[in-house]
Amino acid sequence: MMKKLFRDDRGLSLLEVVASIVIIAIVCISFFSLLVQTNKTKVASSNTVDLTYYAQTELENIYTVTSNNINTPISTFSYGPDISTVPDKKIFTKTDNNMTYQMTLKQISGNNELTGVIIEIKLNNGNASPAKMETIMRWKVF
Questions:
Q1: Residue 25: inside a domain, yes or no?
Q2: pTM for the full predicted model
Q3: How confident is the model at residue 4 (pLDDT cuts 50, 70, 90)?
């Protein structure tokens, strides 16, 4: 019986060929969509890492300048005017290399020499979620 099955010279029917092509197509489409999603995730992750690096660098620049002089004016860092309407909080923005930097300064209650500094950076094209770094440093802003 087994020998007869393998000796059959009739070949495959059209239905069998079409069914096998459909199965192969479904498997290939699944892999292609997986590759596309992996690439999107890689790009988003890369943008987030880059923005976090820029935020950290900006925060370190501010720390370096203000650690030498706690009375350093905000204008030293090339930010625009304060856009906040809250008295114990100041928000400044600047645009550089297709990125928008936002510096938020918060007054630390009980100590006029300490300021909470938040740097948030986002791409102007909106293709990545913003990166945010925060610290408290000696800087008389208020």
A1: yes
A2: 0.72
A3: low
